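Table 4 source record.
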Amino acid sequence: MKTRLLWSKILVIVGLIAMLIGTIDPLEGSLIILPGSGMVALGAFLVKSRHRLLLYSAFVLIMIGVGVMFGLSMLGGVGGSTGRSNWWLVVVLPLPIGWIIGIVGTILKLIESFKVTHNEDNEGKNNKAAELTG
Protein backbone atom coordinates (compact mmCIF):
# COMPACT_ATOMS: atom_id res chain seq x y z
CA MET A 1 0.00 0.00 0.00
CA LYS A 2 1.37 3.38 -0.91
CA THR A 3 2.44 5.65 1.93
CA ARG A 4 0.27 8.55 0.76
CA LEU A 5 -2.79 6.32 0.56
CA LEU A 6 -2.13 4.97 4.05
CA TRP A 7 -1.66 8.46 5.53
CA SER A 8 -4.74 9.65 3.72
CA LYS A 9 -6.86 6.89 5.23
CA ILE A 10 -5.48 7.56 8.71
CA LEU A 11 -6.12 11.30 8.46
CA VAL A 12 -9.63 10.81 7.10
CA ILE A 13 -10.63 8.27 9.76
CA VAL A 14 -9.16 10.28 12.66
CA GLY A 15 -10.72 13.46 11.26
CA LEU A 16 -14.11 11.79 10.98
CA ILE A 17 -13.90 10.59 14.58
CA ALA A 18 -12.95 14.12 15.73
CA MET A 19 -15.84 15.64 13.78
CA LEU A 20 -18.27 13.20 15.40
CA ILE A 21 -16.90 13.65 18.94
CA GLY A 22 -16.98 17.43 18.57
CA THR A 23 -20.75 17.44 18.16
CA ILE A 24 -21.24 16.57 21.83
CA ASP A 25 -20.72 20.21 22.85
CA PRO A 26 -21.30 22.88 20.19
CA LEU A 27 -18.98 25.60 21.51
CA GLU A 28 -15.97 23.73 22.88
CA GLY A 29 -16.53 20.84 20.47
CA SER A 30 -16.04 23.19 17.56
CA LEU A 31 -12.36 23.30 18.53
CA ILE A 32 -12.28 19.56 17.82
CA ILE A 33 -14.48 19.70 14.71
CA LEU A 34 -12.30 22.32 13.00
CA PRO A 35 -8.99 20.38 13.10
CA GLY A 36 -10.88 17.16 12.32
CA SER A 37 -12.26 18.77 9.19
CA GLY A 38 -8.77 20.00 8.35
CA MET A 39 -7.37 16.47 8.70
CA VAL A 40 -10.03 15.12 6.35
CA ALA A 41 -9.27 17.86 3.80
CA LEU A 42 -5.54 17.14 4.07
CA GLY A 43 -6.18 13.42 3.61
CA ALA A 44 -8.17 14.18 0.45
CA PHE A 45 -5.41 16.49 -0.77
CA LEU A 46 -2.69 13.86 -0.34
CA VAL A 47 -4.28 11.46 -2.81
CA LYS A 48 -5.92 14.08 -5.05
CA SER A 49 -9.38 12.74 -4.25
CA ARG A 50 -12.19 13.78 -6.55
CA HIS A 51 -14.09 14.89 -3.42
CA ARG A 52 -11.37 17.24 -2.20
CA LEU A 53 -13.12 20.45 -3.31
CA LEU A 54 -16.20 19.40 -1.36
CA LEU A 55 -14.04 18.79 1.71
CA TYR A 56 -12.13 22.06 1.26
CA SER A 57 -15.40 24.00 1.14
CA ALA A 58 -16.64 22.16 4.25
CA PHE A 59 -13.44 23.15 6.06
CA VAL A 60 -13.85 26.81 5.07
CA LEU A 61 -17.52 26.86 6.14
CA ILE A 62 -16.64 25.28 9.48
CA MET A 63 -13.84 27.80 9.97
CA ILE A 64 -16.21 30.71 9.29
CA GLY A 65 -18.90 29.26 11.56
CA VAL A 66 -16.48 28.67 14.43
CA GLY A 67 -15.09 32.20 14.12
CA VAL A 68 -18.55 33.76 14.13
CA MET A 69 -19.67 31.59 17.03
CA PHE A 70 -16.70 32.59 19.15
CA GLY A 71 -17.21 36.23 18.14
CA LEU A 72 -20.82 36.14 19.29
CA SER A 73 -19.77 34.38 22.46
CA MET A 74 -17.22 37.12 23.22
CA LEU A 75 -19.98 39.71 22.78
CA GLY A 76 -22.10 37.95 25.40
CA GLY A 77 -24.08 35.54 23.26
CA VAL A 78 -27.60 35.97 21.96
CA GLY A 79 -31.05 36.16 23.49
CA GLY A 80 -31.95 37.04 27.03
CA SER A 81 -30.61 40.38 28.27
CA THR A 82 -27.91 40.71 25.58
CA GLY A 83 -30.06 42.86 23.33
CA ARG A 84 -29.51 40.47 20.41
CA SER A 85 -32.38 38.28 19.30
CA ASN A 86 -32.04 34.58 18.68
CA TRP A 87 -32.08 35.36 14.94
CA TRP A 88 -28.39 36.26 15.31
CA LEU A 89 -27.74 32.53 15.38
CA VAL A 90 -28.38 32.50 11.63
CA VAL A 91 -24.85 33.85 11.14
CA VAL A 92 -23.51 30.67 12.77
CA LEU A 93 -25.19 28.45 10.13
CA PRO A 94 -21.97 27.90 8.15
CA LEU A 95 -20.78 25.63 10.99
CA PRO A 96 -23.58 23.02 10.87
CA ILE A 97 -23.83 23.27 7.08
CA GLY A 98 -20.07 22.73 6.76
CA TRP A 99 -20.25 19.87 9.26
CA ILE A 100 -22.94 18.09 7.25
CA ILE A 101 -21.04 18.62 3.99
CA GLY A 102 -17.87 17.41 5.72
CA ILE A 103 -19.48 14.22 7.02
CA VAL A 104 -20.99 13.41 3.61
CA GLY A 105 -17.70 14.23 1.85
CA THR A 106 -15.74 12.12 4.32
CA ILE A 107 -17.98 9.12 3.76
CA LEU A 108 -17.65 9.55 -0.01
CA LYS A 109 -13.86 9.85 0.36
CA LEU A 110 -13.68 6.67 2.45
CA ILE A 111 -15.78 4.76 -0.07
CA GLU A 112 -13.52 6.04 -2.85
CA SER A 113 -10.31 5.09 -1.02
CA PHE A 114 -11.47 1.55 -0.28
CA LYS A 115 -12.55 1.07 -3.90
CA VAL A 116 -9.12 2.27 -5.08
CA THR A 117 -7.37 -0.14 -2.73
CA HIS A 118 -9.59 -3.00 -3.87
CA ASN A 119 -8.95 -2.18 -7.56
CA GLU A 120 -5.18 -1.92 -7.00
CA ASP A 121 -5.19 -5.32 -5.29
CA ASN A 122 -7.08 -6.87 -8.21
CA GLU A 123 -4.74 -5.29 -10.76
CA GLY A 124 -1.74 -6.66 -8.87
CA LYS A 125 -3.24 -10.16 -8.90
CA ASN A 126 -4.08 -9.88 -12.60
CA ASN A 127 -0.52 -8.74 -13.43
CA LYS A 128 0.98 -11.67 -11.48
CA ALA A 129 -1.35 -14.12 -13.23
CA ALA A 130 -0.35 -12.68 -16.61
CA GLU A 131 3.35 -13.02 -15.75
CA LEU A 132 2.92 -16.64 -14.66
CA THR A 133 0.96 -17.64 -17.77
CA GLY A 134 2.91 -15.43 -20.20
